[in-house]
Specification:
Elements (H helix, E strand, L loop, with lengths): L7 E6 L16 E2 L2 E2 H10 L5 E6 L3 H11 L4 E4 L6 H12 L5 E6 L7 H14 L3 E7 L8 E4 L5 E5 L6 H4 L3 E10 H8 L15 H8 L4 E5 L12 H21 L3 E2 L5 E3 L4 E2 L4 E2 L3 E4 L3 E2 L4 E2 L4 E3 L2 E2 L4 E2 L2 E4 L2 E2 L4 E2 L3 E3 L4 E2 L4 E13 L4 E13 L4 E2 L4 E3 L9 E3 L4 E2 L4 E3 L3 E2 L4 E2 L4 E2 L8 E2 L11 H5 L4 H13 L28 H14 L1
Parallel strand pairs: 1-4, 1-6, 4-5, 7-11, 12-15, 13-16, 14-17, 15-18, 16-19, 17-20, 18-21, 19-22, 20-23, 21-24, 22-25, 23-26, 24-27, 25-27, 26-27, 27-28, 28-31, 29-32, 30-33, 31-34, 32-35, 33-36, 35-37
Antiparallel strand pairs: 2-3, 6-10, 7-10, 8-9
Helix pairs in contact: 1-2, 6-7
Bound molecules: uridine-diphosphate-N-acetylglucosamine and calcium ion.
The site of uridine-diphosphate-N-acetylglucosamine (UD1) has 27 residues, from strand 1, helix 3 and strand 10.
Length: about 525
C-alpha cells in the first residue's frame, strides 16, 4: 500500500527565541551543516506533501529566505503577532482555505525529529481514521510541556498546558510533542473555535483536541520511540546537546555502513557528507558541506574538509581543504591548505606548509614543502622545490602559470605569472622566473655568487664572527684579512650562463655599502 500523502505540512517558526540571546533568528541556528528550519523542512519533505507551509513572524525575511532555499515553492504565511500555536494555524487555514486531506503540523525548532517518525504519525492517523493524531513522548522530566490527558478507557481526551494543569495532571509523564496530523477540513473549523481563556491568554492549538472530541470525532496518539526526537531547542545549551545527538546519530549510521571512526566524540560531520566503506576518520576531524570521502581514504587527525572530494585511498593529515578534489592515492599534509579550485591528481603528494588555490597538480607530482601554488596548472610527475611561490597577483589582476610534465622547479623559486615551464625543464634554485622556460631547458634567473674575502674581519672587527674568521684563517694558513677581496667563488654548478648576471666587483662594492647603511 502506498504511503498516505499529506495535503500540507505546516512548520511553525514565528517565535522569537529570546532565550537564544542571539542576533541570529532561532530557527536559523544550525547543526550538522543545516539550519534547524532546514532540518524540519527536510523531514517534512520526505512525506512528499502537496505543499509546505512555514509560519514566519519574528525576522520573517531571513526565515522566509531560508525556507525558500530548502523548498523553492514553499508557502510562507506571516503571523504579525504571536497569538499562540492555535492562532498560527488559524491564519494559515484562513490564508490558504480549507485543505481537505491530512494536514501535519510541526515545529521549526525540533531538529532531531526523524522523517520516519512523522511518517509513522501520518500512517497511524490514516489507518485509525482519526480527526487528530498527536505525537507524544514519555520523558522523565515533563515540566514545561503540555500533558496528555486520557479517558478512563485510555483514549486521548485533551492536552493541558503546564500553566493550566492541576498538580495531578502535572504528574503525568506523557507529553505533547507539538507534532500532529489533522483532518484538514475539521482542523480549519476547530481552530476558529479555540478560546484564549487560559493562563497565557493565547490561542492554543492543543485545544483543538478537546474541541474535536466534543464534536464526537476520534483523537488518537502515537508514542515516539525515541523521546529525544521531540526535544525542542530554546537556548544554546540545548542546541549544543541536540547537535551532539544529531552528530552521534550520523556517525553511527556511517559506522554501521563500514566507516571507521576512531573517536566519535571528537569527529563532526555534516548531514550532506558521504563516506564510503573502509574510509577511516581520525580524531579532530570536521567534514562539512557536501564532502565525499572514498573507500580506503584516511582523514585526520585534525582536518577540516568543506565541500571536498577525497578519492579512494588518499590520505589527508592536519589539513584545511575547501572545495578541493584530492585524487586516488594522493596524500596531503601535514599542515596543508587547499583552497577552492584545487585539484590534486592521482598519487600526487602535497607536503608540509603548502597552500594551493585554484590550482591543479598532475598525477604523481610533488609539492613537498613550504610552497604557495596559486592559479597554476602543474603537469604529471613534476617536482616543485621547497619554498617556491607561484606569484599570481600583480596588484591588479591574477595570472595563471603552467608547469609541464617531468619538470623540476628548484628550491626557493618565484614563478612570476603568467609563465610557462615546458615539459622536462629544470629551473635553478633561487630563481625568479619571469620568462617562459622551453621544454628541456634549464632556467636560471639569479645573480652569480660573489664572496668578498676578509669582509667580516675588515668591517666587523672585534666581533665573535671576526674572531672565528681569524682563527679559521690561521688554521688553514690562508691569506690576510687585509687582502683586496675581489676573488670570486663559482657559486653554482649548473651554470649554463645564458641568463646569469655576472655579479661584478663594481656591483658588489655598491651592495656592500648598502648593506652597511641598512644596519
Ligand atoms: C507547545 C505546546 C505544548 C507542547 C510543546 C512542545 C501549545 C499551546 N503548547 O508549547 O503542548 O508540549 O509545544 O514543545 O501549542 N509559534 C508560532 N506562533 C505562535 C506561537 C508559537 O509560530 O504564535 C511556534 C514557535 O516558534 C515554536 C512553536 O510554535 O516553534 C511552539 O511554540 P512555543 O511557544 O514554544 O510552545 P510551548 O509553550 O513550548
Ligand atoms: Ca517550546
Amino acid at each position: 500500500m502506498s504511503e498516505p500523502r499529506p495535503v500540507a505540512v505546516i512548520v511553525l517558526a514565528a517565535g522569537e527565541g529570546t532565550r537564544m540571546k542571539s542576533r541570529i533568528p532561532k530557527v536559523l541556528h544550525s547543526l550538522c551543516g543545516r539550519s534547524m528550519l532546514g532540518h524540519a523542512l527536510a523531514a517534512a519533505g520526505e512525506l512528499d506533501p502537496q505543499r509546505v507551509v512555514v509560519v514566519a513572524g519574528h525576522r520573517r525575511d531571513e526565515v522566509s529566505a531560508e525556507a525558500a532555499r530548502h523548498v523553492p515553492d514553499v508557502c510562507v504565511v506571516v503571523q504579525e503577532r504571536l497569538g499562540g500555536t492555535g492562532h498560527a494555524v488559524r491564519i494559515v487555514t484562513e490564508a490558504l482555505g480549507v485543505m481537505p486531506g491530512i494536514v501535519v503540523v510541526t515545529y521549526g525548532d525540533m531538529p532531531l525529529l526523524r522523517a520516519r517518525t512523522l511518517a509513522a504519525l501520518v500512517r497511524e492517523h490514516a489507518a485509525a481514521a482519526n480527526a487528530v493524531t498527536v505525537l507524544t513522548a514519555r520523558i522523565p522530566d515533563p515540566s514545561g510541556y503540555g500533558r496528555i490527558i486520557r479517558d478512563a478507557d485510555g483514549s486521548l481526551a485533551e492536552i493541558v498546558e503546564e500553566a493550566d494543569a492541576t498538580a495531578a495532571q502535572r504528574a503525568i509523564d506523557e507529553i505533547n510533542s507539538g507534532c500532529y496530523a489533522f483532518d484538514g477540513a475539521l482542523l480549519a473549523d476547530a481552530v476558529k473555535r479555540v478560546a484564549t481563556s487560559n493562563a497565557q491568554g493565547q490561542e492554543y492549538l492543543t485545544d483543538v483536541v478537546a474541541i474535536l472530541r466534543g464534536d464526537g470525532h476520534h483523537a488518537g496518539t502515537i508514542l515516539a520511540a525515541d523521546p529525544a526526537e521531540v526535544e525542542g531547542v530554546n537556548d544554546l545549551v540545548q542546541l549544543a546537546k541536540v547537535r551532539r545527538a544529531f552528530n552521534e546519530r550520523l556517525l553511527e549510521t556511517w559506522m554501521r555502513a563500514g566507516v571507521t571512526i576512531v573517536d566519535p566524540a571528537a569527529t563532526w560531520i555534516d548531514v550532506d557528507v558521504t563516506l564510503a566503506p573502509d574510509a577511516e576518520i581520525l580524531p579532530g576531524t570536521h567534514l562539512e558541506g557536501h564532502t565525499v570521502v572514498g573507500s580506503g581514504a584516511r582523514i585526520g587527525p585534525d582536518c577540516l574538509l568543506r565541500d571536498t572530494l577525497v578519492a579512494p585511498d588518499a590520505k589527508v593529515l592536519y589539513a584545511v581543504c575547501e572545495s578541493a578534489e584530492i585524487g586516488p592515492g594522493a596524500d596531503v599534509g601535514p599542515f596543508a591548505r587547499l583552497r577552492p579550485g584545487t585539484r590534486i591528481g592521482p598519487g600526487a603528494h602535497i607536503g608540509t606548509n603548502v597552500e594551493l588555490k585554484n590550482a591543479t597538480v598532475g598525477e604523481g607530482s610533488k609539492v613537498p614543502h613550504l610552497t604557495y601554488v596559486g592559479d597554476a596548472d602543474i603537469g604529471a610527475h613534476s617536482n616543485i622545490g621547497a619554498a617556491t611561490v607561484f606569484v599570481n597577483y600583480d596588484g591588479i589582476a591574477k595570472h595563471r602559470s603552467t608547469v609541464g610534465d617531468y619538470v623540476r622547479i628548484g628550491a626557493d623559486n618565484m614563478l612570476v605569472a603568467p609563465v610557462e615551464i615546458g615539459d622536462g625543464a629544470y629551473t635553478a634554485a633561487g630563481s625568479v622566473i619571469t620568462e617562459d622556460v622551453p621544454p628541456g631547458a634549464l632556467g636560471v634567473a639569479r645573480s652569480k655568487q660573489h664572496n668578498s674575502e676578509g669582509w667580516v674581519e675588515r668591517r666587523r672587527p672585534g666581533t665573535p664572527a671576526a674572531e672565528a674568521a681569524a682563527r679559521a684563517r690561521h688554521a688553514t694558513g690562508s691569506g690576510s684579512a687585509e687582502s683586496s677581496g675581489t676573488k670570486e667563488s663559482p657559486g653554482t654548478k649548473e651554470s649554463s650562463g645564458t641568463k646569469e648576471s655576472p655579479g661584478t666587483v663594481e656591483g658588489w662594492a655598491r651592495s656592500e655599502d648598502e648593506e652597511t647603511q641598512a644596519r
